[in-house]
Amino acid sequence: MKRFSSSLMFLALSFASLGASLALENGRDYVALATPQPVETGKKIEVREFFWYGCPHCYALEPAINNWVKHKPANVEFVRTPATSPSWLVQAQAYYAFAALGATERTHAALFRAIHEQNRPLNTEPALADFAKEQGIDPAKFREAFNSFGVRTNLERAKRMAEAYQVTSVPTFAVDGKYLTSPSMVGSEEGVLKVLDQLVQQAAKERTTGKSTGKSGAK
Q1: CB atoms closer than 10 angstroms to residue 206
Q2: What span, in angstroms and rounded, lies between the C-alpha atoms of 45 and 130?
Q3: Taking the model in full, what pTM does it have?
Q4: SS (H, E, C) 137-168
């Protein structure tokens, strides 16, 4: 009987320890923004990924992120924003051009593969027009979208957003305009998805209560 009681106590302590290890810490697992940013997802929790097609870490994380998106809670909407460092602008512009053509589903993963598996730089308008043709998109229509006012407007907006969110590396994830996290901050790709889950729960709770508790740590 004593042995059984001791086993139960050990299990209880183990679970307590596990729960403590899963508690998030501001500055370690995520950063709470001093100035929360507006979201575009209405009543749903916004999870925004800042990425670059040429980033090997972004490419490596894609399968896990796609799986996470498939199984995300119903109250979450996932959106992407291409990073806009000077040498990355052309591919960010291509992202918005393909979006304007309604071709994101066809081109997003294919562009990652072309860069990382086929070692194609795809960092000029002509090269991206050729890529578009390979995906069954009229190169002339791609060029028209690529140079359109709407795409350039989205590109400028992405620049301002990256500055407002203080994004310094990719991939970086923003949760409901309040919290930033990344694999480099958490220490692993698997870990960042767990942090996203917890931050989503935290953001949902804050929307319900109207109180922000993330700056001192999410439980």
Answers
A1: 17
A2: 37
A3: 0.87
A4: CCHHHHHHHHCCHHHHHHHHHHHHHHHHCCCC
